[in-house]
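tmp note - 2-succinyl-5-enolpyruvyl-6-hydroxy-3-cyclohexene-1-carboxylate synthase
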Amino acid sequence: MDHTENLTRYTANFTDELARQGVENAVISPGSRSTPLALMLTEHEAVKEWVILDERSAAFFALGLAKETNSPVALLCTSGTAAANYYPAIVEAHYSRVPLIVLTADRPHELREVGAPQAIEQRDLYGEHVKWFHDMALPEATVSMLHYVRSKAARSVYMAKEGNPGPVHLNFPFREPLMPDFSLKDIWNHPSAARQSAITAEEGGRFLDPSQVEQIMNRLQNKERGIIVCGPQTDESLATSIADLAAAWNIPILADPLSQLRAGKHSKSHVIEAYDAFLRNKEMRASFKPDFILRFGAMPVSKPYLFFVKENGQTDHFIIEHHSGYREPAGINAHFIYADPAQLCDVLVEKELSSDGGWMKQWLRANEVSKKRLTAGEEAELTEGEAVLGMLEAMPDGSRLYTGNSMSVRDVDTFFLTTDKNIRVHANRGANGIDGMVSSGMGAAAAGETVTLLLGDLSFFHDMNGLLAAKHYTLNITILLINNNGGGIFSFLPHLDKEKHFEALFGTPPDIDFQYTASMYGGTYRNPANLEELMEAFTKSYQHEGLSIIEVNSDRTMNAEWHRKKWRAIEEELLAGSDD
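out:
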């Protein structure tokens, strides 16, 4: 068997096994050394290929697509620094638990460490940021090697999904010539039994036994002022189970904007969404001292909640994780429960727990006052908060919101009020970076649902390359671009000197006219001056096929004061009421 046939059958069997294991999408960046796999992924009828030129953009595109589909996405590039450009997205995928199957082409072993062009050390390139790494063997097409390549494909999918999902990395050394031969017969199914011999695996659920449940309930006896907290998590089915538990125990749910609890058809009678606003005041935080905290998902976005947790460090704190993990940045004493969250809620809902009747009323009042103040009034000029409120009102039922970091996710935390609309919310909160946000939103849009991407001007500038995917694939995405000409979040940090070096090091104004990016990438552009124009812009954007950019201009200093004015009004009304 010659080199070309070895190469063809080896890569074809690997690709077919990926598809057999459920991989439906592959994101490919062009290159020479990756030719065999690129062509195989493109030729396979069960795999949809997405060609993204910039490797950094491609990796974040795959991240967004994997988030939305909740399924592993293959990611392929050539050798050299192309693979290094994947690193930021792989770090994010690791910390946010997103399954990616990273495939890097490499020089064969004889061309490593000898100064060959486009050859870098790719073994263990991503270190501990991948769940599993394997340096693949050179292509052969014997029965044993086809079994080998299929088993590695199957294992890569299993490892990406197993336990806490995450990225895995397979490195493929290829010798030239690199072109496979598609005229060979039956390349996807070798005449041997290799196709049937790849590994399969089934994984059961994780449940507590009755004695463990009783231990938890024993610790909660005579504790009447409990809180359920749901931080960032992606399981939409968890909402009903948590809502039922909160109703049964009559305790509040502090629902992070990424918890999937603020939107949907489930009951929201016990959902508290404005806690970030009223927990900013230390005196207010002291009045909400809990007996226990039951947390699902990652740590919430809210910094006031972090202060609240630290100030109640001796409170019984239970953290429920579906699998292993240690997500507790507050440095408090915590009891970890590794079990299926929904099933645990369904068990606990049958257990009786006494509650303080005034406890729930206290939270509800603070929540209602906060929502009233946050939505009150309309400014002469469109503010950032009003823009986010308008966006959330305009978003269609069944659509997706992808929010950037810094001020964007914090404004969503503040202004995303409960709704019966089904809106799934995504964000890159693993490493909390501003890079790759446009591409991540494009990847989510590639799954087929309408996506609204909220981000600031620096995040937008940082990843404008990602807009090419919208033009290339006519992806339906509306971008709400909040342009305050720099890093708006730094205006909220009191320790920074606003005069000396502030603009150069923190404000960093890009001074860019973003209107031209819309025309460059074939999108529509609108720049509304008031709320009415904003709502009209959203309506037109959702009727438009392809990319729409809505830019809202804002002043950083005025925006910070507008937020503080809202928070002061909330504090004053609630503290005045506490004296009654």
